[in-house]
Design goal:
Length: 220
Amino acid sequence: MFKSVTLYTDQLAAMRRFYGNILELEITERAEDRFTVRIGTTDVTFVAADRPAFYHFAINIPGNQFSMLKHWIQDRVPLNWEDGVDEVYFRAFDADSMYFEDPAGNVVELIGRRRKDVYGDITRSSFLNISEVGLVTGDVQQAGQTLFDAGLPLRGTDLEPDELNFIGSGDAYFVLVPDGRRWYFSKKDAEIHPLTASLSNGTVFSLDAAGQITRSSSGE
């Protein structure tokens, strides 16, 4: 679903080193004010900003490589903990997750999909694509309606204004949350920071600094 995602950071150099050298992912664009890292089939661009910003996003990984990737990640960055554990199984998604933070404080989740297997050693191909992009807003109902109007379905029956809302399908979702709700497996409360997400069908969603979501198309 996610073709590309644009996020902002005041730690550009440290972030480029982290994703290129520590996680050993491919940096496809380098410029003075931005860089793009290829995460499977998704391009994630970090743009220089004057103020700190952090987000939650998740990366799909093969379920059969979860344990290997956990050891691989732990050699590079500490994992986050919640209730005395550093991983969790989500029955509703049939997936295992672990979490860590990058130099900008982004809460990054690796989701091992038990129905997806990749055989061999840990390589860049173990990072399949962006699975989740957190959308933080002061008006969950308005933001949710914008996503629904674009044809994205809600996972569940009702939009919950004070909780996590998964909007999307398959293994890719926007995670719509109210400003101030704590991100799982972190000590961080969600904050509103601008971002752009382009979907594989050409739809583009932009979140501004006020938490308002707008929709356009890549052809506009």
